[in-house]
Amino acid sequence: MEKDWDMIEVLRHTRHDWLNKIQLIKGNLALNKVDRAKEIIDEIVVEAQQEAKLSNLHLPEFASLLFTYNWENHMFQLEYDVLEEIRCGKLDDKSLANWTRSFFSCLNHAIQPFNENHLSVSIEPQKQGVRFFFDFSGIIIHKKDMKSFFETIPSALKLTMQSLSTEELSFDVFMNYS
Length: 178
Known about the structure:
The chain is α+β, with helices and mostly antiparallel strands. The chain is built from five helices and five strands; from the N terminus they run αααβαββαββ. It has helices spanning 7-30, 34-55, 60-68, 93-110, 143-150; strands at 77-82, 118-125, 129-137, 157-164, 168-176. A five-stranded mixed beta sheet has the order 1-2-3-5-4. A hairpin with a 3-residue loop joins β4 (157-164) and β5. α1 (7-30) packs antiparallel against α2, α3 packs parallel to α4 (93-110) and α4 (93-110) runs antiparallel to α5 (143-150). The radius of gyration is 18 Å and the shape is globular.
């Protein structure tokens, strides 16, 4: 599931994404849908601000995972939001990225393919660590696999489950600064 992105591939995907966004703006302007073009520009600005906030957390492996996840074919669409723009302490980036990658893999296999599956990750830096909120909506067909996954969480992470049903999964994970 993990792909090692080289610089050329990253640039290719980034350029492709930007060209798509520019074409959307041009198309809406050609149709004289100026308000929609402005909305798209606003969405691009918000996305760029979120990318900057994620980059500023100094979690390169975790950030790379989130930045590139939607570039591959998966059973769910990923969205992220960094809630606070404060300087964080040091986290175990590799451990966090590995656990998140494992969670994504488990979720990818536990959900119904070709459904509108969506995962939102909110990241909230705090004084003593960082809280990660995971909120999934879609169809979970292997709930038992998800429960098993959460029973083996690493000791560095503190998980609080909020809900796990066939249509929703929400929980948060807290990781202390090292």
